[in-house]
Specification:
The complex is a heterodimer. By secondary structure, chain A is of the alpha/beta class. Chain A has three domains: 21-225, Rossmann fold; 243-346, Roll (Ubiquitin-like (UB roll)), CATH 3.10.20; 351-464, NADH-ubiquinone oxidoreductase 51kDa subunit, iron-sulphur binding domain (de novo design (two linked rop proteins), Up-down Bundle), CATH 1.20.1440.230. Chain A is built from 19 helices and eight strands. Chain A starts with 20 loop residues before the first helix and ends in a 15-residue tail after the last helix. The relative contact order of chain A is 0.12. By secondary structure, chain B is of the alpha+beta class. Chain B has three domains: 3-112, Ubiquitin-like (UB roll), CATH 3.10.20.740; 156-292, Alpha-Beta Plaits (2-Layer Sandwich); 300-527, Rossmann fold, CATH 3.40.50. Helices cover 23% and strands 19% of the residues of chain B. Chain B is built from 14 helices and 24 strands. In chain B, the strands form seven sheets. Chain B has a seven-stranded mixed sheet, sandwiched between helices. In chain B, strands 2-1-7-3-6 form a five-stranded mixed sheet, with helices on one face. The radius of gyration of chain B is 28 Å and the shape is elongated. Chain B starts with a strand and ends with a helix. The chains are: A alpha/beta, B alpha+beta. Chains A and B meet through helix 13, helix 14, helix 15 and helix 16 of A and strand 4, strand 5 and helix 2 of B. The structure holds flavin mononucleotide, iron/sulfur cluster (3 copies) and FE2/S2 (inorganic) cluster (FES). Flavin mononucleotide binds at residues 56-60, 62, 64, 84, 86-89, 173, 175-177, 210-212, 215, 413-415, 418 of chain A.
Chain lengths: 480, 529
């Protein structure tokens, strides 16, 4: 645990009723937006965000300040801000805490960002299943509108800003920014071809900035504290700045969402924040570091970075889970930080079964536009079902690799890579397990959690196979 | 012109071209499914992936089996680009045949057939299916998936003309785009996700616009079939002739597909012509081949109504000669036709001239509904050609002919083509004539009013030229031989002329094609079609 850490981003999570404007405002909300709109030039705001090294919190980790700089509107163009609250990546449940517990932080961030990038309209696109979050945000927006913070003259300034919430309709792919834009426009939610990128041609054909809920929610603190100060809160400053929300789920004692500086390690996250492994007799086997699309790491794998100039040289010989969690560090490790929400698996987990579970999801969620993803995701799942059910063949391991290798880089959007990467990662890290399962199916009694599963009504696998969605158990409990 | 290198060859390109379009223009095929030269880029099939040599490697690793370590190790590969989307540019060095590209192509091909029923023996697309072609050129392997395919709806009626088989569909969205972009009717879209995806018709709608058959035409596989053509012919038995649609004054270029064994025309398909119809035809045009089979005049006909008798074509011609000889030559009226070929019209115009008759009229079908896509409001393929044949714009219509008959200015009629705008009742004076001779391939009001009908070949059985509304003279070729005893129109007219003692002295159709003074160049270029 980071000693004496005072939460910033989640500072109001512990305040009762912080979703009410009056409560939030008593606890600091909107003061920064007021200052920014009334006293700061847009360029000055953009400069602070650049200095903050705010890496996008939606998964790809692109620096927000640089993204905002891509706007190059033509005469007569409207600029839009679109805020991505689709949060559907398995294992990811951090954005909803902001929506549920502190929606005014997001609204404040949206106001500042609109002013900074020259937008008069912002859309907050929220995963449809998060009906509770949508209701809370809508109520917060109503309050902000009633107060005049959102509307024709925010804080008295003659700069109209309207903010809308927009519910999705139950598709993971609508989190991909261009699919989101299609969905927002009332079209089928499937990714667009790029270029043009949204900053050039986004919502309704206009220049658009798409940022994650957490990214935008970080903006008020950056402006309040100054970009550099905020950046330096990170252990990986100056390249990867500030603080962020970490999610942790799986076999730990205290799954949840925690705020910490950028750059803590997975080991810290598991032991200090997650309360350690759930069962004392079941050690940590593997961690999916940042949402299901990121390749899995093993505590017993050591970083190989002997060369002096290797970005991970500092951690050479240490466990993979002792590398600080950052966008660039994890990329150098061959995985991704993604949404920074880790899925912890203990020794009871069979990796082939875990892969099958994941591939059921991806098969179900592929938008189906491009051949490699549409057919590849289905075939991966199909092959894994065969292997798990004991109908596998030795060559199936090579087949899984072959399918995934050829999905990589060959599609319209990153979904296919988000499918193939974890597949390849699991085989790379747990090759023998796949070889064994291909020869003889899953080992007897591999599911230590069978008793829990038996308690569930029906087999969730059937629900997926029937095309029905499984229940979404959102995690609202947060310890700041 | 700037150029880039594709597989070691220089390919010129125009500004705005993608690699695939430039290659297509140069006649080089980069394999593709979803791209169509007349539609927007969807880049979803991924068959056209190419390697841009100056491009980057993939950021995230793939895996390679390491024999020494007996396990998988990270590896990299180049980032491939869809040629249909990637802009052509100077200095680009592109490979569509390198090993990594071949691997990608092979996988896409295998994937497209992964959940495909492979029911080629009962599929109408077989023989002209990209799945078959590219399997042979880019895959050639047995399918590695062992389990049952994903089953989806089959034989779904999309509308009056089109049937859909979702299992054969490769989700390329060409059909969706043809409706959106050519017709402006968003009646089709995709639904469901992943390998359950399928195309569907907007709720409450049918696929019923004027260009529905173009969805089948662009479908690269057997997912969309035409209800008209389904189960009718195997395409490898068909041969094709260059035709010009007779539906309207647009003059869409087309392939006339026929079975040389039965000598039947089985279907029409658009023939690309950027200056006329681009890649398309309308449904009425596509169905116009039915006239080759239906409502044909196959024998000579003499007399009218109940008393009408079938006679040999030669007998009908003899009858015509006898009847016409009874009327002074300069009192014979000649009715040219906006639906007949320029050559047929020219033959008739020459006969009129030889007989010293100045009584020329033009029969035409009434206007139909045009649009700003292809269809001309003028339902006739060759109004301009008939005028050209006459040597002047024909001002007198069949209505005028009726007045002239009533006034006694003319006493006999010779017409080519049976179509006219008037109802039969309006043609009573013509129907009362002893000498009204109509050369016709199909029945129509004029042949109904005639005392003698001489059968002639249809457009599919002749060579000829139509001049469209743009003034383009466009030649069409013979697809099938005419029914026994039936001659091409111009020859039958020439025979009549000969028998009447006014021989035209024409040996070949081409001699009848008057070269248009005004648009000689266009005509000269097109006549060689
Ligand atoms: C399949 C897929 C799903 C995604 N889902 C989300 C999501 O739920 N929320 C999100 O913020 N970004 C998601 N992204 C990333 C977005 O495309 C985009 O990069 C992000 O919203 C940009 O915001 P940021 O720069 O603030 O991270 C997804 C990307 C892909 C390829
Ligand atoms: S990669 Fe998958 S999700 Fe993305 S566009 Fe292609 S089919 Fe759709
Ligand atoms: S029906 Fe044919 S054209 Fe339409 S998406 Fe399927 S394969 Fe493509
Ligand atoms: S537009 Fe006219 S010429 Fe073209 S296909 Fe239709 S009827 Fe024939
Ligand atoms: S032709 Fe389909 S992706 Fe290029």
């Amino acid at each position: 645990m980071v000693a004496d850490y005072e939460p910033i981003l989640s500072s109001r999570y512990g305040v009762p009723d912080a979703h009410r404007l009056a409560v939030a405002e008593r606890n600091g909300a909107y003061a920064t937006a007021k200052k920014a709109l009334l006293t700061m030039r847009p360029d000055a705001i953009k400069e602070e965000v650049k200095k903050a090294s705010l890496r996008g919190r939606g998964g790809a980790g692109f620096p927000a300040g640089i993204k905002w700089g891509f706007l190059n509107p033509k005469e007569g163009d409207d600029i839009y801000l679109v805020i991505n609250g689709d949060e559907s990546e398995p294992g990811t449940f951090k954005d909803r805490t902001l929506l549920n517990l502190d929606p005014h932080r997001l609204i404040e961030g949206a106001l500042i960002t609109c002013w900074a990038i020259g937008a008069h309209k912002a859309y907050i696109y929220i995963r449809g299943e998060l009906a509770h979050s949508i209701a809370i945000l809508d109520a917060a927006l109503d309050e902000a509108r009633a107060k005049g913070y959102v509307g024709a003259r925010p804080f008295g300034k003659n700069y109209p800003i309207e903010i809308f919430s927009h519910p999705g309709a139950g598709a993971y792919i609508c989190g991909e920014e261009t699919a989101l834009l299609n969905s927002l426009e009332g079209r089928r939610g499937e990714p667009r071809l790029k270029p043009p990128f949204p900053a050039i041609k986004g919502a309704f054909g206009m220049p658009t900035i798409v940022n994650n809920v957490e990214t935008i929610s970080a903006v008020p603190d950056i402006i309040r504290m100054g970009g550099e100060t905020w950046c330096n809160l990170s252990r990986l400053a100056p390249r990867d700045g500030g603080v962020r929300l970490y999610g942790i789920s799986g076999h730990v004692k205290k799954p949840g969402v925690y705020e910490a500086p950028v750059g803590i390690t997975l080991r810290e996250l598991i032991d200090d924040y997650g309360g350690g492994m759930l069962h004392d007799d079941r050690p940590l086997k593997a961690v999916i570091p940042g949402g299901s699309s990121t390749p899995v790491l093993r505590p017993d794998r050591m970083v190989e970075a002997e060369a002096e100039d290797h970005p991970l040289h500092e951690w050479h010989g240490k466990s993979e889970i002792d590398v600080p969690m950052g966008v660039d560090t994890f990329r150098a490790l061959g995985t991704m930080l993604g949404t920074c929400c880790a899925i912890v698996m203990d020794s009871s987990v069979n990796m082939v079964d875990a892969a099958r579970n994941l591939m059921r999801f991806y098969r179900h969620e592929s938008c189906g536009q491009c051949t490699p993803c549409r057919e590849g995701s289905g075939w991966l799942q199909n092959t894994l079902e065969e292997v798990c059910e004991g109908r596998g063949r030795p060559e199936d391991v090579a087949l899984l690799v072959d399918i995934a290798n050829n999905m990589m880089g060959n599609t319209i959007c990153a979904f296919a890579e988000g499918t193939a990467m974890p597949m390849l990662g699991m085989i790379q890290q747990f090759h023998q397990e796949f070889v064994d399962a291909a020869a003889a199916g899953l080992p007897e009694g591999y599911r230590h959690d069978d008793s829990t599963r038996a308690g569930l009504a029906g087999d969730p696998a059937d629900a997926v196979a029937d095309g029905a969605s499984t229940d979404d158990t959102s995690t609202d409990e947060v310890t700041a | 012109m700037p150029s880039f290198t594709l597989d070691g060859q220089q390919v010129p390109y125009e500004p705005g071209d993608t690699i695939l379009r430039a290659a297509w223009r140069a006649g080089i095929e980069i394999p593709h499914y979803c791209w169509h030269p007349g539609l927007s880029v969807a880049a979803n099939c991924r068959m056209c992936l190419v390697h841009i040599e100056s491009g980057r490697q993939m950021a995230m690793p793939i895996l390679r089996f390491d024999q020494a370590k007996q396990t998988y190790v990270p590896d990299t590969k180049p980032k491939l680009m869809p040629a249909c989307q990637f802009p052509a540019g100077d200095d680009l060095v592109v490979s569509s045949t390198s090993e990594v590209v071949k691997t990608a192509q092979q996988h896409v091909q295998e994937w497209l057939l992964l959940n495909h029923p492979v029911d080629c023996p009962i599929c109408d697309q077989a023989g002209e299916c990209k799945l078959q072609d590219y399997w042979a050129t880019h895959d050639q392997q047995m399918k590695r998936k062992r389990t049952e395919i994903v089953h989806k709806p089959k034989a779904v009626r999309f509308g009056p003309t089109i049937v859909y088989d979702a299992e054969r569909c490769i989700s390329c969205t060409r059909c969706v785009r043809v409706c959106d972009e050519l017709v402006g009717d968003h009646v089709l879209d995709s639904r469901e996700r992943g390998n359950r995806s399928e195309i569907f018709v907007a709720p409450g709608r049918e696929l019923d616009h004027r260009y529905t058959l173009m969805t089948e035409h662009v479908c690269p596989v057997g997912a969309l079939t035409s209800r008209d053509f389904r189960f009718k012919a195997r395409v490898w038995f068909l041969k094709s002739a260059n035709g010009i649609c007779s539906g309207c004054a647009k003059g869409c270029n087309m392939h006339v597909d026929y079975d040389p064994r039965s000598r039947e025309v089985e279907r029409l398909r658009p023939r690309d012509n950027m200056d006329v119809n681009q890649f398309w035809m309308c449904d009425d045009g596509m169905m116009s081949y039915k006239a080759v089979r239906e409502d044909r005049v196959l024998t000579g006909l003499v007399g009218r109504g109940e008393a009408r008798e079938r006679v040999a074509a030669s007998a009908a011609l003899a009858f015509a000669v006898e009847r016409l000889s009874a009327v002074p030559a300069d009192k014979v009226a000649f009715v040219l036709s906006a639906t007949a070929s320029t050559e047929e019209n020219a033959a008739l115009a020459r006969l009129a001239e030889a007989m010293g008759s100045v009584h020329l009229y033009l029969a035409a079908r009434p206007d139909w509904e045009g649009d700003d896509i292809l269809r001309s409001a003028d339902h006739n393929p060759n109004r301009a050609g008939a005028n050209l044949a006459a040597g002047h714009a024909l001002e007198e219509s069949v209505e005028d002919l009726v007045s002239d008959l009533l006034a006694g200015a003319v006493g006999a009629v010779v017409a080519v083509g049976a179509d006219s705008a008037e109802a039969l009742e309006a043609l009573a004076p013509m129907a009362a004539l002893d000498a009204s001779v109509v050369f016709a391939s199909n029945h129509g009001v004029l042949s109904d009013a005639a005392s003698v009908v001489v059968p002639i070949a249809s457009w599919a059985e002749s060579v000829g030229t139509y001049v469209n509304e743009q003034g383009r003279a466009q030649a069409y070729r013979r697809a099938v031989t005419p029914p026994g005893g039936v001659q091409e129109g111009w020859r039958a007219i020439a025979d009549l002329a000969e028998a009447l003692g006014h021989g035209l002295g024409v040996e070949r159709t081409e001699e009848l094609m008057p070269m248009p003074a005004a648009n000689e160049a266009a005509a000269a270029a097109e006549v060689t079609a």
